[in-house]
Amino acid sequence: MTWSIVVVVGSVMLVALFAWANHNTAKRHARFENSDVEYALSELLSPDSHSHDTWDLFLSWPINDSYLESIRQRCIEIVRDCPRQHAHEDISQDGVRRVGEILSELRDRT
Fold first, then answer.
1. What is the DSSP string of 25-93?
2. pLDDT, tens only, 27-65
3. Exposed, middle or buried: residue 51 (CB in 10 Å: 0-12, 13-18, 19+)?
4. Nearest in space to 57 (alpha carbons), one of 42, 35, 72, 78
5. What is the DSSP letter of 4?
6. Which of 4, 60, 82, 94 is the most buried (most CB within 10 A)?
């Protein structure tokens, strides 16, 4: 009986921890600025980057700024339209080109 209480309480605490972390991540990403989006796009495009965690998080959470959110939506569309052709890629080369165009647009705007 005692072990089942410990398991239930532990499970509730774990769920609460993940809910809190997700809430904080959503708030942080909602406040993304041009530099944050530029970093996420650059990370995807960099041949030296071995981790695209920033890119993945950028795609996952909405942004309050309408222009930056439109970039995020365009990138989501690129991911959908240009699936990877090799296991080590996130998107196809055409998708990389399109993200590069968006990055240039973003840099020109700032």
1. HHHHHHT--HHHHHHHHHHHH-TT----HHHHHHHHS--SSHHHHHHHHHHHHHHHHSB-SSTT-SB-H
2. 776 778 999 999 999 999 988 876 778 898 899 989 999
3. exposed
4. 72
5. H
6. 82
Give the pTM. Answer: 0.77
- State the Rg of the chain over Cα: 18
Q: In the chain, where are the structural domains located?
A: 1-30, 31-109
pLDDT band at 23, cuts 50/70/90?
A: low
- DSSP 8-class letter at 1: -
CB burial readout 67-97, b (16+ within 10 A) else e: ebeebbeebeebbeebeeeeeeebbbeebbe
What angle is formed at CA 90 by the lines to CA 84 and CA 94, rounded to 5 degrees?
Answer: 55
